[in-house]
Amino acid sequence: MKEREADGFGAAGDRLGAATDGFGAVELARVVELVRRQGARTVVVGHGRDAGPAAEAFARTWEGTVLAVIGWPERAASWLRQARRFTAGEPDAWVVAGAPLGWAGMSERLRRSTDWDPARTYGFAATARAVALAPPGTLEGMRGADHDGNAWQIGRNVIFREIS
Residue 1 pLDDT more than 90? Predict the structure, then answer.
């Protein structure tokens, strides 16, 4: 496993620790807690291709209803098909895992083509870094947890951290 930077979000080249060993029990527990605290009962879980294990771990852990688990490629011509599937079930919340590049592209498509709301979206650590790649304001309101379980929220092109 690659060493993480002190900020808890992982090294820049770390694709969520290849997305299989880059998330841990503390990060997973915090993401579940954040979604539960919102009062969500139904969720859709989305993930980049390499982050399937994180998404599946969340789906297994979630005590409410998982409407769908949707995967997307890191690079795509438009992500439109995945975006429509991701928003089709009208969940209380969306949970995402994956590399920053893929999530930046997918989130841009979601904002342009669907009723997706980043304020109802929760992510694993690597997804926060998409704020540097996505158009301004695309991810504003999204929340999540870093590898150490610290919560974060995305503002307009900035990540606010809540140290616990």
Answer: no
